[in-house]
Amino acid sequence: MNKPLKTAVLLVLSVAFLSSTAHADGLFMELPEDGTRVSYTMKVTGGNPPPEGLKMSVTISSVGKVEHKGKPCRWIEIAFLQEAMEMRREIFHKLLIPEAELKKGGNPIGHLVKAYKKIDDRPAAEDKQATSARHGTLPLLLAGPVKDAKKLEAVTLETGLGKLESAGLKGTTVFKEAAKVDPDPAGEDNSTPEFNLKVDSEIRTHEKVPFGVAQAVLAFTANKGPEERTGVITFIVDKVSKGATSAFPDSK
Length: 252
Prior knowledge:
Order of helices and strands: HEEEEEEHEEEEE
Structural class: mainly beta
Radius of gyration: 18 Å
Number of domains: 1
Strand content: over 45%
Mean pLDDT: 82
Helix content: under 10%
Strand order of the largest sheet: 6-5-4-3-2-1-11-10-9-8-7
């Protein structure tokens, strides 16, 4: 893998350093019919932007309905795609979430039942760190409601679905995760520094968009120990389709 693409892969793999956790609206405001898929273009700007020419997108799909402990649930699949210089990288997450949490006011990451992860053509594996903002991207997209939310006036968005008049809400969330100490018999330092993140989010919605969100703009300041990173992550709707199926249907 060449250096620019490797840098971009590491950037997306470490979105935990950029992302939020519960208490900030993610990309789930309503629940469409099963088999629905929506794609977003993804842009990262700020102090450590990805290489020029890199294309990033996120796809969210409903790929199955089941009951868990008497509650109706959905299999939600989230795929991150990176393309540059004739190279392609995909990271899939398959998640079982109660339907009641996949709506405005819900908290999907706080009620995650099962989680699996698959990278490119490798076998899928259970993801035991799916709810950790330190270790993964999912809390950014599966978060609960913004605290102290304020309404946004409608604006016209230029999207892959055409021009959309979209109002919304904004708010700020702060996430903190304590440092971890992992003693090493060899005397090496395996400790993990404290993680602090502030995110100012603007979420705009539209009825034409499955799951409800037309655009999400997340301005962040992240501190991991002495290291600080700032920037903006923007998701804007690009495509909508039906008939979505799972990239790894045997994970149940």
